[in-house]
Specification:
The protein has 188 residues and is of the alpha+beta class. It has a domain of 129 residues. The protein has 1 helix and 10 strands.
């Protein structure tokens, strides 16, 4: 027959001491781990918000000039992309319908659309069917309670547009994201 007498008092105290050391170590490192994971989540959230927010602008830039040159009913030619140097502002024009031929641009003025993006009050704003970068009624691309755009630059080159944006979280200004994109002109 086997003799089973259990654990001695010394063995129980040793196991209890090792278990408490393990629990204290976990308790000390859990807040650090949680803070690191939260910071990583916030950085990814900022990056995703900026990437998704800039996507419509990039698509519009690639579509710019879908008609060779857009013209008004007066016959005045307009550029497909206009960058205002006074403030970072971009006006993009292209044919929305996709059915107009270059010979009948003047007859399809209603299908020609303009889209504008500007840097205003620490945000990127969007408007459609505008001819200049001032005025009211612009739509903000980013939630102003969450994201603050610190800089926005546009550099026009012959074959591409260089776009740079810096954004930070409002509630944690040390978390910032630098966005840079070189967009090749498709129809210019």
């Amino acid at each position: 027959m086997l003799n089973s007498r259990g654990f001695s008092l010394f063995e129980m105290l040793l196991i209890l001491m090792l278990s408490s050391l393990l629990m204290m170590t976990l308790i000390l490192f859990f807040p650090l781990l949680y803070r690191h994971l939260l910071q990583h989540y916030q950085q990814q959230r900022l990056r995703q918000a900026v990437d998704w927010g800039m996507l419509p602008m990039i698509k519009d830039i690639k579509r710019a000039g879908f008609m060779a040159k857009l013209s008004l009913s007066s016959g005045q030619m307009q550029s497909a992309i206009v960058i205002e140097p006074a403030r970072p502002c971009l006006i993009i024009r292209y044919d929305l319908s996709g059915i107009a031929q270059s010979s009948d641009v003047a007859s399809n003025v209603s299908s020609n659309a303009s889209f504008a993006y500007r840097y205003h009050q620490h945000n990127i704003e969007y408007a459609s069917d505008v001819s200049h970068c001032s005025g009211n009624g612009w739509i903000k691309l980013f939630d102003e309670r969450e994201i603050k755009v610190t800089s926005f630059t546009l550099l026009d080159k012959p074959t591409y547009l260089q776009l740079r944006l810096s954004a930070c979280l409002i509630f944690q200004p040390t978390l910032c994201y630098q966005y840079a994109q070189w967009i090749r002109y498709e129809n210019r």
